[in-house]
């Protein structure tokens, strides 16, 4: 037997005693709003489907335009690519020869020698500066009472800087002697 007073299945469980006609009216309103929501979703679904079909047709049109390269044409294609690469290489080589025919290579060598001499002189002078600074600080520390302790504190740093400068100078000499 059906109990018509059970309102929980239609969302009317609010404690009010509503008649059957009122319940039917509320259900009619709910079903009407559900109908319009479903119509909107159906339209969106149709639009999405149509866009998918158009994208698929576009992709098919793009891929249909691609021609399949037959095996006998691959050799010709490879030969054309090799000819193009050879022409580019010849152009680059000609450009290289044009640059090196003049005295550009001598200018590079002269610049390299000048830079080497400057860097060697700079390293030698830096090592000499650090050695002189170390001697000066030692002399000053020996004359002032209590300052010898801070000289010995910084002496290892000065020794490390001097040895690094000497190592760079030796590395530059070795690099030049390799050429």
| Gap between N and C termini | 109 Å
What structural class do you assign from the helix and strand content? mainly alpha
Number of strands: 0
- From the spread of the alpha carbons, the general shape counts as flat
Number of distinct helices: 4
Largest sheet: none
Percentage of β-strand residues: under 5%
Oligomer: single chain
Topology order in helix (H) and strand (E) letters: HHHH
Question: Average pLDDT across residues?
Answer: 76
Any idea what the radius of gyration is?
46 Å
Low-pLDDT segments, ≥5 res: none
What percent of residues adopt helix (DSSP H or I)? Answer: over 70%
Number of spatially distinct domains: 3
Write the layout of secondary structure elements.
Elements: H1 20-64, H2 71-101, H3 104-143, H4 148-178
Helix pairs in contact: 3-4
List keywords for this structure.
179 residues, mainly alpha
Report on this structure.
This protein has 179 residues and is an all-alpha fold. It has 3 domains: 8-66, no CATH class; 73-101; 103-178. The protein has 4 helices and no strands. Helix 3 runs antiparallel to helix 4 (148-178). The radius of gyration is 46 Å and the shape is flat. The model has no long low-confidence stretch (mean pLDDT 76).
